[in-house]
Specification:
- This protein has 86 residues and is of the alpha+beta class.
- The chain has one domain (7-85).
- It has helices at residues 26-46, 52-85; strands at residues 7-13, 16-22.
- A two-stranded antiparallel ribbon has the order 1-2.
- It starts with 6 loop residues before the first strand and ends with a helix.
């Protein structure tokens, strides 16, 4: 794992520039940043009185909820495939 090449990429999320360091390709990092930015802006548009920290926290909560649902769906599909194989 120490041999993995790290990339540095600057992204813009909600009007602020962040430098992301990781092993993912730059296109992937840009896509992630773009989705986070879009989700934050959508949330702010629905709740204009929220401050930036609240928008960020609620975006993280919403995206984590989506992730957990997808993970559960994936596990159910894996279980279903396993049953069909047996």
């Amino acid at each position: 794992m120490a041999d993995e090449k790290k990339t540095r990429i600057s992204v813009n999320i909600y009007g602020k520039t962040y430098t992301i360091v990781g092993s993912e390709k730059s296109g992937h990092v840009q896509q992630v940043a773009s989705i986070v930015d879009e989700k934050m802006r959508q949330l702010r548009d629905r709740n204009p009185a929220l401050d930036t920290a609240s928008v960020a926290i609620l975006t993280a909560v919403n995206m984590t909820n989506d992730y957990i649902k997808l993970q559960q769906d994936y596990e159910q599909l894996e279980e279903q495939l396993k049953k069909e194989k047996d």
